[in-house]
Design goal:
Blueprint (H helix, E strand, L loop, with lengths): L1 H25 L6 E9 L7 E12 L4 E11 L5 E15 L4 E8 L5 E8 L2 E7 L5 E8 L5 E8 L6 E10 L2
Antiparallel strand pairs: 1-2, 1-10, 2-3, 3-4, 4-5, 5-6, 6-7, 7-8, 8-9, 9-10
Length: 173
Amino acid sequence: MNMRRTLVLMLVLLTALSAAAADEMKKLNFLVGEWKGEGWFQMGPGKRELVLQHEIVREKLGGKILLIEGLGHRKLENGSAGDVVHEALAVVSWDEAKKAYRFAAHTAQQSSVDATLELRDNGAVWGFDTPQGGKIRYTIRQTEKGDWNEVGEFSRDGTNWMKFFEMTLQKVK
């Protein structure tokens, strides 16, 4: 009888944790869908590179996970897509024990990072510390038109920020 009660209590607790995770993940539903648009990035003192960006964001595991796939092609002078300059995959979930989002980002161009993610008015901010020292943050906001605008910034000291990336995407599905 004691064992049965313990199992029932464990199931109730797991169900409650699962519901809490799903509720927190729903706050990111504004990202779900297929998105296309343009952006730019600038690494160092060179000129800005223009990019045609495509993002697909899907709910997985009953809404407990967001899977984000990003693919960016260099924008050629004639407006067509050139070589791939950015390919990324991220998994976002809710950590009930820490009361925080987990954001694991992976790119074809660099290694993986475990980032932080916090909700903001009309969006979210995610970021991480760089191995060389400094911080990178990406601010995502939903515009009045419903577009996805994202700005990437770098800081050596966590106070002064330099913009190195921006994209604006429209939802296509």
